[in-house]
Design a protein that fits this description.
The complex is a heterodimer of chains A (about 350) and B (about 300). Chain A has helices at about 1-30, 35-40, 45-55, 65-75, 90-125, 130-145, 145-160, 185-190, 195-230, 235-240, 245-265, 265-285, 290-300, 300-330, 330-335. Chain A is an all-alpha fold and about 350 residues long. Chain A has a domain at about 100-285 and about 315-335: MetI-like (MetI-like fold). Chain A is globular, with a radius of gyration of 24 Å. Chain B has about 300 residues and is mainly α. Chain B has a domain at about 95-295: MetI-like (MetI-like fold), CATH 1.10.3720. Chain B contains 11 helices and no strands. Chain B has helices at about 15-30, 35-50, 55, 90-125, 130-145, 150-160, 165-190, 195-200, 205-240, 255-260, 270-295. The longest helix of chain B has about 35 residues, at about 205-240. The model of chain B is unreliable at about 300-305 (pLDDT under 50). The chains are: A mainly alpha (about 350), B mainly alpha (about 300).
C-alpha cells in the first residue's frame, strides 16, 4: 500500500519534471539563440524568407503563445524538421535511437556485472593485494574521461593491434538483420543469424567498455564500502556463528543490503553513460542518436537539439523510476512502508 | 599528552593563532597520513605552478598561440621536443602547459559562481521548508538534475557562441543544483536545532540565522564536495573543448588538442596521447587531493573509504 503511494508520488514528480524540462529546453532552443529563424536559414537568406519562417514558427507572437504552439507540437510528436537531414526529427530519432539504446544497455550490463564483482572481491579481500589493485584501478578509471579512453581504444585497436573492430556497428559487407527492434544483437538473434550477432557484439565491446569503465569503478567502491560497513554488523556475526559457509554469507546476506547505496546512484551512472555517449559515439563512428545530436549541436540545428534533449530527459526519468523500483525491492523499509 | 604532566598554574588559554596552528597541524596530520592524498597535492601544486609560470618555464612559450614552423612540423618526441610537435611545428609540451591555464581558470570560476548560488538557494529552501519558496527552488533543482549533466552543458554551449566564457556559463548552469540539493538536506535538519530556535527567539535577523547559524555548520560537506568537484569540472570542460565548444584555436585547450590529434592517428600518435595523459593526470591529481580533503574534514577517526 505504502509502496503504491510512494511510486505514485514519484510518478507525479516525474511528470512535473518533464514539463519543467520542456520549459528549459524551450528557453535554450528558442529564446537564447535570439532569432531561430535566421539561424535556421543561415546569414545569407533573404529577409522575406526569414520573416515567413518566423511567422510559420510563431516567432512573431508572445513567448507564452510560442511555448504553447511548440509544446503542442512536441506532445503530438511533431518535433519539426531537421536542418541537417531535411527530414522530420521524429523519423531521425526513431532511426538513430536503437543504436544508442543498445550501446547504453550493454555498457550498463558491464557496469552492473563488473562493479558487483570488483566491489565484492575488494570487500572480501579487504587490505589484501586484490583490494589495492582494484583501488588503483578505481583512481585511474575515474580520472580518465570516457572520450579519452575511446580515442585511445581507437588508436590501439583501430590501428596498432586490430584484434577487435573499433569503428561502426557492423563490419563492412555484413548484411544487417531485418529491423524488428532496431537492436542489432537482438534482431540477429531473433532471425537466427549468429554470424551477424557475433559481429554486432564485437563492435559493441569497445565503445561500451569506454563508457563503462568509469562507472564500474565508482560503483565498485561504493559496494566495497557498504559491504565492509555491513560486515561489522551483528547479523553477520550471527550468521557466522550459525556456521553458515562464507560464500553464502557473502552472496546472500551481505551483498543484497550492500547493493542499496550502489543502486541509488545507478541512475546518475546511467545519466553519465548517456551524456558520455555523445562523445564516444562520435569517436567510434557509432550511428546513434548521440552522434546525431552532437552533429545537430555543432550545426545549431535547434529542432533536432531540443528533440534529442527531450528524448534523453524522458529516458532518464524512466530510468530513475526503474531505479526507485529496484531500491524499493531491495530495501524492505521502503517496500513495507517503514520509516526511513 | 604532556599537558597532563604540567602543573596547573601553567595552563593558560592558547591564543587564537596557536589554536589555529594546532588545528592546522592536526588536519595536516590527518591529510598526510594517506600517501595518495599527498601525491595528489604534489600533482596539483606542480600543475598550478606550471600553469602560473607557463611563459617562463615552457621551452617554447611562443608556441602557445598562432605560430607556424613547418620546418619542425610533426616531429616525434625527442630531446628538443619532449612530447613532439604538431602539424604546425608547435611544441606539444608547451601547449599542454598553457592549456592547464584555461582548465584551472574554468574550474575556479565555475565553482566560484555555482557554489555560492547553489548554497544560497539550498539554505533558503531548507530554512523555509514547506513554503512556496521551498517548492519552487527544489522543483527547479529537480528539473536541472533530470538531464544528463554533460548533455545540458553541451546543449547550452552549442546555442551560444563557442568560446571559453560560454563553456564556463554552460557548466555553471548545470552545476549549482547539486549544491542546492546538498545544502537543502542539511539546512532542513539544522533549522530544528536548538541554537537556531534560540537565535530566532532572541530576534536575530534572517540573514544572521541563515549565514551565521546554519551556514557554518554546512561548510565541511560543501568544501568536501568542492574539492571532489574540481576534477569533474575539468573533465566536463575537456569534453566540451573536445567537441569544439570550448577555448578556440590557436589558444590551446586539452580536449581540443586531443580531438585535433585524432585526425592524424596513428602516425602522429603523440598529438593525441600526450594531451590525453595530461587530462588524466590532472583529473587524477585533483581527485586524490579531493579524497584527502574529504578524509581531513570528516568527523571522527574512521576513514570514509
Amino acid at each position: 500500500m505504502r509502496l503504491h503511494s510512494y511510486l505514485l508520488r514519484r510518478l507525479l514528480l516525474s511528470i512535473f519534471v518533464l514539463v519543467g524540462l520542456s520549459i528549459v529546453i524551450f528557453i535554450i532552443a528558442r529564446v537564447v539563440p535570439g532569432d531561430p529563424a535566421r539561424m535556421a536559414l543561415g546569414p545569407r537568406a533573404p529577409q522575406f524568407a526569414v520573416d515567413a519562417l518566423r511567422e510559420e514558427m510563431h516567432l512573431d507572437k508572445p513567448l507564452v503563445t510560442q511555448y504553447y504552439y511548440w509544446i503542442k507540437g512536441v506532445a503530438t510528436g511533431d518535433l519539426g524538421k531537421s536542418l541537417v537531414t531535411k527530414r522530420e526529427v521524429l523519423e531521425d530519432i526513431m532511426e538513430f535511437l536503437p543504436a544508442t539504446m543498445e550501446l547504453v544497455m550493454v555498457s550498463a550490463i558491464f557496469v552492473i556485472v563488473f562493479s558487483i564483482l570488483f566491489g565484492a572481491l575488494a570487500a572480501r579481500y579487504k587490505d589484501k593485494w586484490v583490494d589495492s589493485v582494484i583501488r588503483i584501478m578505481a583512481y585511474t578509471g575515474v580520472a580518465v574521461p570516457s572520450f579519452v579512453l575511446a580515442v585511445l581504444f581507437v588508436l590501439i585497436f583501430g590501428y596498432l593491434w586490430p584484434v577487435i573492430p573499433a569503428l561502426g556497428r557492423l563490419g563492412a559487407g555484413v548484411q544487417p538483420p531485418v529491423s524488428i527492434t532496431g537492436l542489432l544483437t537482438i534482431d540477429s538473434l531473433l532471425t537466427g543469424d549468429f554470424p551477424v550477432f557475433w559481429d554486432a557484439l564485437k563492435h559493441l565491446f569497445l565503445p561500451a567498455l569506454a563508457l563503462a569503465i568509469g562507472p564500474i569503478f565508482q560503483e565498485a567502491r561504493i559496494i566495497r564500502s557498504a559491504m565492509t560497513d555491513n560486515m561489522g554488523k551483528d547479523y553477520v556475526a550471527a550468521a557466522v556463528g550459525y556456521g553458515i559457509p562464507n560464500h553464502i554469507i557473502m552472496g546472500k546476506y551481505l551483498l543484497k543490503p550492500s547493493l542499496i547505496p550502489a543502486v541509488s546512484v545507478m541512475g546518475l551512472d546511467i545519466a553519465s553513460l548517456m551524456g558520455n555517449a555523445f562523445l564516444v559515439e562520435v569517436i567510434f563512428n557509432w550511428p546513434g542518436i548521440s552522434r546525431y545530436g552532437m552533429e545537430a549541436m555543432l550545426r545549431k540545428d535547434l529542432n533536432a537539439i531540443s528533440a534529442v534533449i527531450i528524448v534523453f530527459g524522458l529516458i532518464f526519468v524512466l530510468v530513475n523510476i526503474l531505479v526507485d523500483l529496484i531500491v524499493a525491492y531491495l530495501d524492505p523499509r521502503i517496500r513495507l512502508g517503514g520509516k526511513l | 599528552m604532556n599537558a597532563n604532566l604540567q602543573p596547573a598554574s601553567d595552563i593558560n588559554i592558547p591564543s587564537f593563532t596557536a589554536r589555529f596552528k594546532e588545528g592546522f597541524r592536526k588536519k595536516w596530520y590527518k591529510f598526510s597520513r594517506n600517501k595518495l592524498s599527498v601525491a595528489g597535492l604534489v600533482i596539483v601544486l606542480a600543475i598550478v605552478m606550471a600553469a602560473v609560470l607557463a611563459p617562463y618555464i615552457t621551452p617554447y612559450p611562443e608556441h602557445a598561440g598562432k605560430f607556424v614552423d613547418y620546418g619542425n612540423a610533426s616531429l616525434a618526441p625527442s630531446a628538443t621536443h619532449l612530447f613532439g610537435t604538431d602539424i604546425f611545428g608547435r611544441d606539444i609540451l608547451s601547449r599542454i602547459i598553457f592549456a592547464f591555464r584555461g582548465a584551472l581558470l574554468m574550474a575556479v570560476l565555475v565553482l566560484a559562481i555555482a557554489v555560492p548560488v547553489g548554497v544560497f538557494l539550498g539554505l533558503l529552501a531548507g530554512y523555509y521548508k514547506g513554503s512556496l519558496l521551498d517548492t519552487i527552488i527544489m522543483r527547479v533543482t529537480d528539473i536541472f538534475l533530470s538531464v544528463p549533466p554533460l548533455l545540458l552543458a553541451l546543449a547550452i554551449a552549442a546555442v551560444l557562441e563557442p568560446n571559453l566564457t560560454n563553456a564556463m556559463i554552460a557548466i555553471t548552469v548545470m552545476w549549482w543544483p547539486w549544491y542546492t540539493r546538498l545544502v537543502y538536506g542539511m539546512a532542513t535538519s539544522l533549522r530544528n536545532e536548538y541554537f537556531v530556535t534560540a537565535a530566532e527567539l532572541i530576534g536575530a535577523s534572517k540573514f544572521h540565522i541563515l549565514f551565521r547559524e546554519i551556514l557554518p555548520n554546512c561548510l565541511s560537506p560543501i568544501f568536501t564536495k568542492m574539492a571532489l568537484d574540481v576534477g569533474w569540472v575539468i573533465l566536463i570542460g575537456a569534453a566540451l573543448s573536445f567537441v569544439g565548444l570550448g577555448e578556440q584555436p590557436p589558444t590551446p585547450a586539452l580536449g581540443q588538442m586531443v580531438s585535433d590529434g585524432t585526425r592524424y592517428m596513428p602516425d602522429l600518435w603523440w598529438m593525441t596521447v600526450f594531451p590525453s595523459l595530461a587530462i588524466a593526470v590532472m583529473i587524477l591529481g585533483f581527485n586524490l587531493l579531493g579524497d584527502g580533503v574529504r578524509d581531513m574534514l570528516a568527523k571522527g577517526e574512521h576513514d570514509h573509504e
